[in-house]
Amino acid sequence: MGLSSDQQCEQRICAAMMQKKEWLLDIVSDVKPEDFFFQATRDLYIILCRMYSDGEEVNASSVLMLHGPEVQNLNFGRSFIQLATDVLMLHEVKSYIKRLHEMRDIRSLMGVADNLKLMIQNDESAENIYKTLEDAVISHTVVGNGRTLIMPDEMAEACVKAVTERMDDKERNKKVLYTSFKNLNYATGGFEKGDLVIMSAETGGGKSAFAMNICRDMGIMQKRPVFYLNSEMSKEQMALRWSAFLGGVSHSKLRNGSTTQEEFKKVEQAAELMNASSLYTLNMPDMQIAGVLAEIRRMKERYNIELAVVDYIGRMEMMDRKDVKDWQVLTNAARKLKTVAQELNITVIMVAQLTGDGGKLAQASYMEHEADLWLNIQKIPESDLPMKWPWNSMIEFRKARNAERGKQIAMHFYGDMLTFTDERKEAETFCNAEGFKPESAAQFGQTVPKKKWVL
What we know:
By secondary structure, the protein is an alpha/beta fold. It has helices at residues 5-19, 21-30, 39-53, 60-72, 80-84, 90-121, 126-141, 152-167, 169-175, 182-188, 207-221, 235-247, 251-256, 261-275, 289-303, 326-344, 385-388, 424-434, and strands at residues 176-177, 191-192, 196-201, 226-230, 279-283, 307-311, 347-353, 373-379, 393-400, 408-414, 419-421, 437-438, 453-454. The chain starts with a helix and ends with a strand.
């Protein structure tokens, strides 16, 4: 007996996963086990996803080596090798994914039809039948694709439950992430799970450093599982940065090799902190949204991450299509990051670069519409530094769903240790270390004449 077109579609999707990494990433991002109808291909898909999640190479040979008996017992209607070696083209893979989703929807509609037929046979009232049909149509055409229609009684119950959980410290901490910056925590109420946070700055404004400070707070100090994707720095470059602000050692001295033995001991202590942490880092120079989403899903499955930081979105590889603009690719990436944050119930921080013309989001100003919170790091102009002592930066809320839009939080960025602080005493210490020292302490906002600064 030959294979049906639907069975062949499912098998070729599995074959594509074993043939090219980019196909594997696309399929893991867009396909779920429940999309499969045939048990054998569903089981194979789950095996392939598990291998990917475990960081194993996914191809026909590795599947047979690691899961040979399991795969051989699956009934594909032909041999596993025949299935795995189907010759495929990129456009075919995309069409098979589309067909798989169409088949899933058709099965859902057939289930509705069977249910309606049964209701008619059981002499259900026309009102109940029409209501069932109406609910099915709403669910399929309006609420589909992972969205959920919430009934009034369900929302009423959710209101009481949501407030009750926020009143309990343990329950609240399951839904919100807090940083070491008290003023930021107070202004935002913490980073909500399910939210997309844009973190931006102009070139050299400290956006990556601030993102790493957030990763330190949650992944290293609080030991909450954090995933940091970086597209710019090598493993060595990241290691020098972590050593600087975890060990409190000059980044410049670490780079030029002039570290003292005392400072090296601090680096060793920093390494111990990193070793005991829950911070997972991935260097991804060829950053593409399908790969980013797949890696985030894999880390959620393996380590139950609570925060994913994508640093930075401006490095996203563009599609090789003349009819698609860069900003469209980046806006689409932001939309998908927002979706995955909600789907996995995690916070996603998207690091973005601003242009110099008025501080707009480089290449993709529309990205901000997808964000729940947009934090922009601004350097205080040198001419204003004496007035703002000991602060040299501001965190501005350019968009905030749960906070005051336009609010500014004073910060000091100690560039040589890649460290931000909103604590006044620590900021003063950093000022002293940098060589800026007024003759007498100044209150925030009080003018300190420039001539009284000692360099």
